[in-house]
Amino acid sequence: MVLLPHSSMFGNMIVPLAFCRTILQPEINKCTSIYASGLTSSGVYPIWLKERFQFTYVYCDMDLVSTQKGWTTIQRRMNGEVNFERWWDDYVRGFGNPSSEYWLGLENIRRLSRQTAYANNGLGAIYTQDPEVAFNLEDWDGVKAFVQYTNFRLNSKAPKYFLNVNGLNEASNFSISLIYMSEFSTPDRDNDYQDRHCASDHKSGWWFHYCDEANLNGPYPKYKQEMTRKNIYWHRWHTVNPSNTALRFVSMELYHGMVEP
Ligand SMILES: [Ca+2]
């Protein structure tokens, strides 16, 4: 097998040449497209970011239990090997490794949330369709839950990456948590709506509003630790598992429809 080295924001990766010929095409711009091309195994794939005019590697989740197949992972925690206590520039650029734990980066996520153009009004205007978003959670007891919303959007102009999530999907098996409608904060950037500095207090970059709604980028918990606001946090987890055990696995994934302009 001929191997071709590729460099990316995540460092050097070795990818089979035949795979590159198949996949490195600008129309492959979401995991949904990769799944539709016949590659139906979960794994790391390159996708084309239209507005950045470049490829980036992501983990495509082809196994998520859903009627839609091919979810693009933008955040994943699974073993604590990557430090998520980072400053603003890292959260904008992205960090980690898509085959393990990573944060895709606010700029990439913003572009990804605008990948699916659905209409041209004849005057050159392109509208974009918001992707769906899934939050997948599993604690150290093996208890799982997921929350899905039909609309995920990062503000395309404001520099604070204002998040707007709405449309709680009825398929969700867990109650709503208040992560919607917030600007992004990091330990060196306080954009929350409190006198305190949530991101500094909770050692994380996140869309903090009142500090204590959710924090999937918080410090990775030790085995069987109790969930607190000082580790990976999701409000009212005790309603899912009365033991309130800390989360060992979390991921955020986007689903894009196949509509093209
Ligand atoms: Ca504040």
UniProtKB/TrEMBL annotation:
Q: Domain Fibrinogen C-terminal: where? A: 22-258
**Where in the sequence is the signal peptide annotated?**
none
- Keywords linked to the UniProt accession: Disulfide bond
Q: Which domain of life is it from?
A: Eukaryota
The UniProt record lists the keyword Disulfide bond:
yes
Write down the Gene3D superfamilies for this protein, in alphabetical order. Gamma Fibrinogen, chain A, domain 1 (3.90.215.10), Gamma-fibrinogen Carboxyl Terminal Fragment, domain 2 (4.10.530.10)
Pfam families given for it?
Fibrinogen_C (PF00147)
Concerning InterPro entries, the annotation shows: Fibrinogen-like_C, Fibrinogen_a/b/g_C_1, Fibrinogen_a/b/g_C_dom, Fibrinogen_C-term_domain, Fibrinogen_CS
Q: What is this protein called?
A: Fibrinogen C-terminal domain-containing protein
Q: To which species is this protein native?
A: Clavelina lepadiformis
